[in-house]
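G., the chain you wanted modeled:
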Amino acid sequence: MARVATPTVPEDLPEEPPDPQASRLTSVPGLHSRSVGTAQNGHLQGGVAVSESAQLRLLPQTKRNGIYFGTAELVSLLERSATALAADHPGTVLRVANLSRQGGGDIGPSVSHNSGRDADVMFFAADRYGSPQEPANFCHYDDNGVADHPPVDAGRYEFDAARNWSLVRHWLSDPDVLVQWIFVSVPLRNQLLDHALRIGAPQSLRQRAARVLVQPRDSSPHADHFHLRIACPPGDRPECLDGGASSDLARQAQVDALLEMYHHGSPGEQRYARELMSLPADSDPADLPPIEGVD
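Predicted structure as tokens:
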């Protein structure tokens, strides 16, 4: 199968203008966080703590260091995706590492995580037979998706493309929060996109994933965890700065992905899209406009 060209994040991303689609994004009622500045040079006001549950656990070192605060939008996205994953894959627990300090700022050795819009999330793992496994901590995966570090885990775990893609799908289809980037190594990115193609994931969702799944140039390849970054919440602009992501186009692609699932997806995908768009269970695909440019 042909591989997708290696994506890279542009250097020196310029500040982008306010998002014309901002009115389509909703805020989290009752929570008043604010992301100020950039992810690399900013701070967080009114940081919201991640709440642990049966579906979501913080890594012990993250709890000890108090690095589990984010904007209300980021925290709610993590909690919603954990609940959705547990419904898709019973028994699955989303394991979350560093977010930001309550007031943001440097956390070291990371160069980002300053303004409450970043979260490190453990990959899901499986054994060689495909059975879900839960490593104690981050595992580094080689180009074939097999754990090669730490030594005690080498060869013991494999990258679980099915559950990891399910997580990415929930992040990218969320109706309230716009994902700016998901940092991950190129070989693992390709596994995710290959899996999405094999299971018949909607084309616009795969295109959206191909745009935001990137291997960064200024840090590790991210072969041991996802680094999720959301776009600036609309209410935090203009003090919050995204960088160079075209969030208006990204938001429209996110809407398109939901619409395509609603029009052309499996019954399960149609139900999923209906729920995210808050449509009645008996709604008809003819109620929504057609998708243009979809195979």
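The helical segments are 60-65, 72-88, 161-173, 186-198, 203-212, 247-264, 267-276.

Shout if anything looks off.
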